[in-house]
Design a protein that fits this description.
Blueprint lengths: L11 E6 L2 E6 L7 E6 L7 H18 L2 E7 L3 H10 L1 H4 L5 E3 L4 H5 L3 E2 L4 E2 L1 E6 L5 E7 L7 H16 L27
Parallel strand pairs: 3-4, 4-5
Antiparallel strand pairs: 1-2, 1-5, 3-8, 6-7, 8-9
């Protein structure tokens, strides 16, 4: 079953954020756009490149009213230790959400049960708490924050303009399509 247009299931977790531990629940997501960015584990190889890329683009997400959550099955203590010991992770300003019970990873259907780790799953969640974008990558394939920004802009555009759709490679400011019988077979 697809998670598209489903509501984020209830959860309660602790995140490391700006030098503090904070509580995050599904209610924390309401009223704004959010990205859940699952990754396998702290102190690994591809993960810091992805999280660093998100950190480098975090201000652009914030300008769009989007909160980013890095999520792994590590504890919030491990997130702090990694933040304190890695130059790349130290630049992260978004919450690093801990999922040691594996519940959140299960809710988003990214848990690798036999490993107790999450797949590289990316989820864009609208202000009503519904999932609008799902992307899952194999563990050895890193993601691109600029492409994620493009997708978030497209999701926000179609949410604000429900009678339009964004074609392939759409970028902010480019033409969209208005689905109609007149377009069938003409694209």
């Amino acid at each position: 079953m697809s998670l598209i247009n489903t509501e984020v299931k209830p959860f309660k977790a602790t995140a490391f954020h700006n030098g503090e531990f904070i509580d995050v629940t599904e209610a924390s997501l309401k009223g704004k756009w959010n990205v859940f960015f699952f990754y396998p584990a702290d102190f690994t190889f591809v993960c810091p490149t992805e999280l660093g890329d998100l950190a480098d683009n975090y201000e652009e997400f914030k300008k769009l009213g989007v909160e980013v959550y890095g999520v792994s099955t590590d504890t919030h203590f491990t997130h702090k230790a990694w933040h304190d010991s890695s130059e790349t992770i130290n630049k992260i300003q978004y919450p690093m959400l801990a999922d040691p019970t594996l519940a959140i990873s299960r809710n988003f259907e990214v848990l690798i049960e036999e490993a107790g780790l999450a797949e590289r799953g990316t989820f864009v969640i609208d202000p009503e708490g519904k999932i609008q974008i799902v992307e899952i990558n194999a563990g050895n394939i890193g993601r691109n924050a600029e492409e994620l920004l493009r997708k978030v802009k497209a999701a926000q555009y179609v949410a604000a303009n429900p009678n339009e759709v964004c074609p392939a490679k759409w970028k902010e400011g480019e033409a969209t399509l208005a689905p109609s019988l007149d377009l069938v077979g003409k694209i």
